[in-house]
Amino acid sequence: MSGANGTDDPPTGQPSNSSLDYKDYELEQDASKIVIPFIYALVCCVGLTGNAMVIYVILKYAKMKTATNIYILNLAIADELFMLSVPFLATSAALQHWPFGSLMCRLVLSVDGINMFTSIFCLTVLSIDRYIAVVHPIKAARYRRPTVAKIINICVWVLSLVVILPIIIFADTVPAQDGGVDCNFLWPESSWSEAFVVYTFLLGFLLPVVAICLCYCLIVVRMRAVSLKAGWLQRRKSEKKITRMVLLVVAVFVVCWMPFYVVQLVSIFHRPPNPVVTQLFVILSYANSGANPILYGFVSDNFRRSFQRIVCFRWLENGLDGEQVDYCAVALKRQTTCSPQDFPKECLASEMVYRNGTCTSRATTL
């Protein structure tokens, strides 16, 4: 966190002619107490709503329960769980100290850490799933089943828990320089802090991203090799769309997380950046948890139609007039037109889809 609060003491020991700088510092601190919690709240609302819709859609509609979507469900659950801890981080950022005690400090940082690793591990599994589907389509039938996907998801959670054991063990409240309390890590040696940043960078970013890039390089080679075969483009069109979806989510993950890890590494080998800038990069990494459902809605026809069904059914249950019911038909124009009575039965078609990937307070913050 540069704690979970990311506070910094004001400049001290400055000559009297630095009063203007001190006032600028105070204005910056006051602004951060308002702007940072507001951004946290916005990310939390978008993330909770979007991931809840993803979870509901996959659990609700039978045809959404494909192997790829089971992996997406796992990622959405991890993101939803993390979003429940964001209000604690926002409060800590506003108060600039940790008011929730030692147990909640350890719990929030542990949830934060497991979201970090579960997200990237899920994206890695999704990329391997795409590789098998495109490069080994015959073998895919054996491995790309919902039952297998559920077992792999359990393994992802177990692996993430093992990886974050240092967080569970060493996270605790620590006295702050201003007399308050921060939520941070109590390392046995100061060198452990730098080692932990490198550890999380390697396991939580670099190695998984290298594996993901390798999968997509092999996919591109395969697609080029068979693109001229008669009928292949038509047969594999669905797989290509899903692969693009997964690739987009991976790209957004890298964009959201790269600045965070750069800041962490710079803090080790150089000097820490401005605390406000650091906190904004932390929030950007959090925003990845809310971005995935938006990507599904824009890129995936299946998810978009499923999200529209949720809204349409809500209108129907509230007994609104026919104009809104007609809107449902327009929203589902690619599907069978249904009367309000038949709608729940006939308009549930949905052929799956894609893939999702997703302390100041990221757990690795120094």
UniProtKB/TrEMBL annotation:
Its main location: membrane. SUPFAM superfamilies: Family A G protein-coupled receptor-like (SSF81321). One of its GO terms (cellular component) is neuron projection. GO terms for biological process: cellular response to glucocorticoid stimulus. It comes from the Eukaryota. It is found in: Cell membrane. Keywords: Cell membrane, Disulfide bond, G-protein coupled receptor, Glycoprotein, Lipoprotein, Membrane, Palmitate, Receptor, Transducer, Transmembrane, Transmembrane helix. The chain crosses the membrane at residues 34-59, 71-95, 107-128, 148-171, 196-221, 242-260, 280-299. Residues 50-296 form the G-protein coupled receptors family 1 profile domain. GO terms for molecular function: neuropeptide binding; somatostatin receptor activity. InterPro entries: GPCR_Rhodpsn, GPCR_Rhodpsn_7TM, Somatstn_rcpt. Gene3D superfamilies: Rhodopsin 7-helix transmembrane proteins. The keyword Cell membrane applies. Signal peptide: none annotated. It is a multi-pass membrane protein. Belongs to the G-protein coupled receptor 1 family. This is Somatostatin receptor 1b. The gene is sstr1b.
